[in-house]
Write a structure and sequence with these properties.
Layout lengths: L1 H10 L2 H5 L7 H10 L8 E10 L2 E10 L8 H8 L7 H8 L10 H10 L1 H17 L4
Antiparallel strand pairs: 1-2
């Protein structure tokens, strides 16, 4: 939900509307913000590890990453969404490149995607804001 609120706020900025000419439907905003990380479904499994606590080794619960469909991050989300709903090219690229320059994609690809599909930049910005400022507080 944090990404959704951050994206809504970003797109409501006067500068974004008037200078950048970015305008998206409520449906598009909700779709990309709420579904950009569906690739994380069923990839975190409960596990345990040993951790030294007060000088004693104790078994603690952890989550382990186990991906049965190693298709990449953003592209996997697009892949998982498409059988259930039709998404536009811009929605697909926004979800695909929502990791922005912090992902493992060649920077030229990220820059080109942001240039061609401004929603990708906006979603990446909202995701970073949510991650580093809002989620960190939870």
């Amino acid at each position: 939900m944090h990404v959704y609120h951050c994206l809504k706020d970003y797109l409501d900025r006067q500068r974004v509307k008037e200078i950048y000419k970015m305008s998206y439907s409520d449906e598009t905003i909700a779709l990309v913000a709420l579904l950009h990380d569906v690739c994380k479904i069923n990839v975190y499994k409960k596990g345990t590890r040993n951790k030294k606590i007060d000088g004693q080794w104790q078994q603690v619960d952890v989550f382990e990453f186990e991906d049965d469909i190693p298709f990449g991050h953003g592209e996997k989300s697009v892949y998982m969404i498409q059988p259930f709903m039709r998404i536009t090219r811009e929605e697909a690229f926004a979800i695909r490149y929502h990791m922005g320059f912090s992902g493992s994609d060649p920077v030229n690809n990220v820059g080109k995607a942001f240039e061609m599909f401004p929603l990708a930049f906006a979603l990446s910005t909202a995701d970073m804001e949510a991650t580093y400022f809002l989620d960190a507080q939870v």
